[in-house]
């Protein structure tokens, strides 16, 4: 019998209650097979666990259980070989698999759905899928952190202007800047781990909404599927999508972090900043302006961020008005979830490649940048404050010098010692060393600051965290 031709009993997909077939446009509208085929292997694994449980509890015979498990395995192989391509008439992946199973193993296939509903089935599949994806994304995050750490390790002594309000503030070590992203991504990694615990709960056996009359063993299926617990309440089990929303929050935050770094790379690559050069492998040209080299990778990451936020919003709105328990609205969770997963993965990968081999920091230009501004002004004030001048007084004094220096088109390092002394007798020859960029950075040795001792501590801590996971 062909795959497309339904076997009896499932031919109209639903029960004999229905007299006529669905309107073709409605069948198309109703079907999710076009996208939920993504769940097929999880559906098969979930069904195999269910079949084993049916046999273990005596609801079906051991032979029947074995036939179901084998038949399902065959469908997996067909799918992997590209030979299983159900059409719209299958409606969704769950019906598609059940129908094919019955074609393969005969009437016993019709026993698979005993004590189960598509409602607990789809919830199970989605959790199995997301569990896998979370692990993959966590690995992607770790990969990205590894590149950040490598780059930071190579750039402890590379200084870069630090900004507040996008105005030059104080110079920092480039390593410090990169490690800030390492920390953000570390929280992302942790957050996904915490969410994993709540994704890893089995709704299987909740039935359509109220449980089942059969003596099923939910703990057994949960154990077979390596879920760490089961839903306590069947209504909650079939209608909870908190776990997906939490994931979308976590994915959104990953995207926020990638997008912020993207924005910085885009600025850095501009002629105005000129802090980095994009290598040819990660940049594109313009179709009309021959001189252009565009930062498409970070721009796309920044652009795709909105998609993931949109999916989070979509699921929140999807859920807010749903009465218990299952509603078909829930079928709409999948495309949002799948796209968020794919987008997050591909953006992590692209940014990892960009940072690993697509960027070159222009160190000479950076060195120039940190020396050509007033970002050492705080250090002059700190210098005086360390010599007993009240900080606010010192702050006002330095403000005055900055003003006169700006007017004279000079930098603080250009003042003569006499000029310094005129300003305040506490100034000595060592003021020049105190305001040199490297000293300015090195001196910020408070815990978590940019001082080089702190950077070395931070690098070590980062390394240990990567090694212990
Ligand atoms: N395709 C459906 C979904 O994705 C499966 C569950 C359908 N259940 C139902 N009672 N119609 O949510």
Number of strands: 6
For the residues shown, what is the average pLDDT?
95
Order of helices and strands: HHHHHHEEHEHEHHEHHEHHHHHHH
CATH topology annotation of the largest domain: Fumarase C, Chain A, domain 2
Taking strands numbered 1, 2, ... along the chain, how are they ordered across the largest sheet?
Answer: 1-2
Radius of gyration: 31 Å
The CATH architecture designation of the largest domain is Up-down Bundle
CATH superfamily of the largest domain: Fumarase/aspartase (Central domain)
Low-confidence stretches: 1-11
Total DSSP helices: 19
Class by helix and strand content?
Answer: mainly alpha
Return the CATH class of the largest domain.
Answer: Mainly Alpha
End-to-end Cα distance: 50 Å
Percentage of helical residues?
Answer: 55-70%
Ions, cofactors and other ligands present here are: arginine
Please state roughly what percent of the residues sit in beta strands, choosing from under 5%, 5-15%, 15-25%, 25-35%, 35-45% or over 45%. under 5%
Q: Major sheet, described briefly?
A: 2 strands, antiparallel
Shape: elongated
Indicate the multimeric state.
single chain
Mind explaining what this structure looks like?
There is one protein chain. This protein has 469 residues and is mostly helical. It has three domains: 31-114, Fumarase C, Chain B, domain 1 (Orthogonal Bundle), CATH 1.10.275.10; 119-368, Fumarase/aspartase (Central domain) (Fumarase C, Chain A, domain 2), CATH 1.20.200.10; 371-468, Ribonucleotide Reductase Protein R1, domain 1 (Orthogonal Bundle). 60% of the residues lie in helices and 5% in strands. It has 19 helices and six strands. It has helices at 24-30, 33-36, 40-56, 62-80, 93-105, 118-154, 174-199, 218-224, 234-239, 242-268, 296-320, 333-358, 363-371, 377-386, 391-407, 417-423, 431-434, 437-442, 452-467; strands at 159-164, 167-173, 201-202, 229-230, 276-278, 359-361. It has a two-stranded antiparallel ribbon with strand order 1-2. A two-stranded parallel ribbon has the order 3-4. A two-stranded antiparallel sheet has the order 5-6. Helix 3 packs across helix 8, helix 4 packs across helix 5 and helix 10 (242-268) runs parallel beside helix 12. The radius of gyration is 31 Å and the shape is elongated. Residues 1-11 have low confidence and may be disordered. Arginine binds at residues 32, 36, 92, 94, 118-119, 122, 326, 328, 330-331.
